[in-house]
Structure formats: structure tokens, C-alpha cells
Amino acid sequence: MRKNLPTVLVNELCEHCPEDHYCILKELCVQCALLDDRFMIQMKCIEIFKYEEGKRQQKHIDWNEASFLWVDRGYAKRFAEVYDEIVQSGKDIHLRPTYRTVVQ
Fold first, then answer.
1. Which of 5, 13, 23, 89 has its CA 20 to 30 A from that of 33?
2. Looking at the predicted structure, is the pLDDT value of residue 8 above 70?
């Protein structure tokens, strides 16, 4: 784990967050400087999923439900596979393409 998460990664992960929107990822970065890239990217993927699933179901999805659905639908396992493939290939990891690959 790295001690200082690169600002570039945090900015990329949070670039689509509305300015008036509370961003759990930024809060985690402030509170826990020891989080690794994989954890941070997966948390942001779950946040996107939470938002999209809430829109699809036309109701509020809380973090517990979103996390349960993420695992239950196999997205956590798929995320691990996709993340490892990208890391092994030496390519840069980009949030939106990674998320779309996981939930397709």
C-alpha cells in the first residue's frame, strides 16, 4: 500500500462528481491515506453502480445494498479479474472503461 495516493488518480476517479455532491472517495482519501489503488477504484465503481442502480430501480440505494448487489451479481469477482488483467498488461487503469467492462 502506498502512503500518499497520487492526486492524479483521485482527480481522475472523481472528475465526474458534481461540485455540490458529497464524494465518499475524496473523504476516504482524506481520512485514510493508506488505501491502495485497487480499493479506491473498486469503491468508485460501486459508487457509480449505486447511482445507476438507484436510477434503474427509481429508488435510493444505500451503500450496504449497493455493496451486497455488487458482490451478489458477481461484479466484485469480475472487478478483480479485470483489474488484474489491466495491471498485468501494464496499461493505465481508467475508471469508466473499467467499470463498463465489469458491469457489461
1. 89
2. no
Q: Which residue has the cell 498485468?
A: 88
| C-alpha triplet 25, 15, 94: angle, nearest 5° | 85
pTM for the model: 0.70
The torsion angle over the Cα atoms of residues 96, 98, 99 and 100, rounded to 10 degrees, is 80
Distance CA 50, CA 42 (A): 12
What is the predicted pLDDT for the residue at 91?
80
Grid-cell match 465518499, residue found: 24
% the chain with pLDDT above 70:
82
Query: Cα-Cα-Cα-Cα dihedral of 26, 28, 34, 40, to 10°?
Result: -70
> Which amino acid makes up residue 37?
D
